[in-house]
Amino acid sequence: MNREHLLAAVRATLKHSDAAAFARIFDQVQCADLAEALTDLEPEQLALLLCWLAPARRARLFEHLPEFQQGLLLPVLHPPAIADMFKALPSDEQADLYNRLDTEAQSRLLPALAQDDRAGLLRLAAYPEGSAGSLTASDYAAVNAGMTATEALAALRSSAPDKETIYVIYVLDPEGHLQGTLSLRELVLAQPQARIADLMRPHPVFVRAEWPARQAAELIRRHSLLALPVINGGERMIGIVTVDDAMTLEKEEDATQLTRFGGVAAMQGDDLDLRTSPFHQLFQVRAFWLVILTCFGILTSTYIAAQTEMLEQVIILAAFIAPIIDTGGNTGSQAATLVIRSMALGDFRLRWRDMWFVIRRELPVALALGLAIAVLESILAYFSKGVQGEVLLVVGLAMLLCTVLGSLIGALLPFAARKMGTDPATLSAPLITSIMDLVGVIIYFGLAYAFLGDMLAPAPLGQ
Amino acid sequence: MNREHLLAAVRATLKHSDAAAFARIFDQVQCADLAEALTDLEPEQLALLLCWLAPARRARLFEHLPEFQQGLLLPVLHPPAIADMFKALPSDEQADLYNRLDTEAQSRLLPALAQDDRAGLLRLAAYPEGSAGSLTASDYAAVNAGMTATEALAALRSSAPDKETIYVIYVLDPEGHLQGTLSLRELVLAQPQARIADLMRPHPVFVRAEWPARQAAELIRRHSLLALPVINGGERMIGIVTVDDAMTLEKEEDATQLTRFGGVAAMQGDDLDLRTSPFHQLFQVRAFWLVILTCFGILTSTYIAAQTEMLEQVIILAAFIAPIIDTGGNTGSQAATLVIRSMALGDFRLRWRDMWFVIRRELPVALALGLAIAVLESILAYFSKGVQGEVLLVVGLAMLLCTVLGSLIGALLPFAARKMGTDPATLSAPLITSIMDLVGVIIYFGLAYAFLGDMLAPAPLGQ
């Protein structure tokens, strides 16, 4: 059933107040598809549909809704409906949702939970957004090293319904320290009397709760894990991050990186999203960056304005302002892109050795590109505008220097950003272009004065 | 053990030809970490280490090496070592590796495989790179609908060692058509006499072998799957795509997107990679784009050069060329970024409705930004350079028009790219900037002529 048909079918159930029909639709389609079809409904309609579902299904559908829509729903759903649904959510979603409720809703929710659950929730909810702890689910499969395979399987079978995943099994000592892992497959294939201690893999990959969430995602991807154990300050295991959360996080992080590099980094709050961000946010974030870029442009134009004398003498110089400053921005953007990409894929860190490696790779390429572009521009200048002699030299040399310097600056800016603790992609392509504009005109007119300065009127004698 | 220590330990085993010591290191560290530590070794050294390992471990280590290093190894490894390792690789890696061998190596390899395996390999290897078929592993867990839970578990237990994953179980009819799926967890928790037909989920999410690989990855992420069934033209299931391959693919695709948007799209072959791409490739790809961008710049400079008369009259106009054309590129880059991001997250397709939605969202924001920037620039122009009157009007209006048009063009270009079958990100930030340069100067001087044309010397009478 495609999206339009699905939405139409759901609207029909709303019209006839047919809860059973909606439940049937729920059973027949994928949860993610249903959630997507419902994005255009009003919050009140969506709340009604959710309340038609039993709490476990309500939780599943709610989980799949985009965050902004969950936010619109919370004030509209009745507190008892939220509480029932809450208990059916996985623990990492519970912590997430809890943190988004207002304090009144939070205080209404806590008494509805069993004491252990309440304590567990508050512990998870305490981890800051963006940390591995905030992605952690506390319901994981644990056994102890002294069990046999049969005992372990029996223990898993009884506790399995409540677990996020039973495919990765964690071996803990009585204090809760992680000793090893094994997979359900290995357990199923093992001899019945084999001891867990012999079957498990020691020294498992793990993440600390305070480390960034993206590091957890990277570890999951690098080691092809289904789940990654999370360790707290007391070296105890507190939960797991699952591969689906890791995959979603990496997708969102990459989208954020692109957003920043294109010049729309949101310095606080959510990324700009064309579909869901309100007008004022779209305006504010873009205006912030445009103002910065425009001010940079003012510096450049002020500098050019001061070169009026030179321009009046050699008006043709004005024609080449654009291509020369653009070249610096173009090569700078290319170089920065390659470095940012390598950083994102984990190839570079912040060591001097990495910066030196980048310069060593970048310099020959930049020189070759600079020569090629300088020659191209000079040929075109000669044939299309008849530019020759010293003016041609100025144009060609300026192209060469702008290309080489643009590449080097573009390649090193991401390191500077990382040093300052910012995502390198925040130094966006437009910002690199603006910086190179200023550098470019200084080089251009510097060369113009060096080679053409004798064309300017000398100061009158006696003054 | 960190990377340097690990590499030192491995070099020690090489120095003393201590195969057993290397095998011990292999057992103690994560495969991905070991593979990363070995990236700096010479191919001959790496080949020796691989041959010290039994075929199954050799295959695991080989799997984790980056593709370029695998390529360097293949000519150096002895054919029998390759053949042994090959048989131990998962089927999707086999197909991949087979396609990268030269025809001589391929013909040496095939006889070493059992007939069924050979046929299966050739079928998988036939799928083009970038298709879901090329990511497919043919070793998946299948049961039939008439089995009981106990029978199914027994069948899985016996075939499990050869399966990519047994956590998702596929229910096939005798012709190989996919009827449903269930998870190992559901099977383990089911009543022993329950029939598979009652336990399974019908209408599973699937991908067709000829669809793009990124679509398989997107489905896996959207529906939080561990594996996705792949269907061929005859509606038969041929294999699965697993979540780890999906996650790796999405990471690579996102890196490619960033690379393109920064102006270094590789029109053929692999993405540029700062660490591994050879000099000539780094030069060629970047030169290709720089030449295109430079030629665009030539158009712009030719146009400006033709405005010599106007510039001589109102030399101050030259000072604002840079900020005005930059603004179009900046807002264009911002707008394009937001649209590309939304497309990548699956929010927009190529429908007229989507384009209209984008224009409706973009236009008010662009107008507001245009007004803000035009006012800012006018104020700065007045106070810093004393620009006033009609010149100020030209500057302000040009800023306004460039901002608005830049946003609209930037927002619609990704749709044009998709229409032409190209990745929208290939219309990079530098390219958008270059296009808006030309548009910007045409608007700027157009306005200059409209408002200041009367300042130009009239044609002499009588001629």
Automatic annotation (TrEMBL), chains A, B:
Coiled coil: none
Database matches in Gene3D superfamilies: CBS-domain, MgtE N-terminal domain-like, SLC41 divalent cation transporters, integral membrane domain
Lipid bilayer topology: Multi-pass membrane protein
Keyword Metal-binding attached: yes
Pfam families from the UniProt entry: CBS, MgtE, MgtE_N
Keywords, ordered alphabetically: CBS domain, Cell membrane, Magnesium, Membrane, Metal-binding, Transmembrane, Transmembrane helix, Transport
Cellular component terms (Gene Ontology): plasma membrane
Domain CBS, first and last residues per copy: 135-199, 200-256
Localization annotation: Cell membrane; Membrane
PROSITE patterns given in the database record: CBS
InterPro entries: CBS_dom, CBS_dom_sf, Mg_transptr_MgtE_intracell_dom, MgtE_N_sf, MgtE_transporter, SLC41_membr_dom, SLC41_membr_dom_sf
Domain of life from the UniProt record: Bacteria
MF terms (GO), sorted A to Z: magnesium ion transmembrane transporter activity; metal ion binding
CDD domains linked to this entry: CBS_pair_Mg_transporter
Transmembrane segments: 287-306, 363-383, 395-417, 429-452
Assembly description: Homodimer.
Role description: Acts as a magnesium transporter.
Protein family per UniProt: Belongs to the SLC41A transporter family.
NCBIfam families tied to this protein: mgtE
PANTHER family: MAGNESIUM TRANSPORTER MGTE
Name recorded for this polypeptide: Magnesium transporter MgtE
Natural source organism: Corticimicrobacter populi
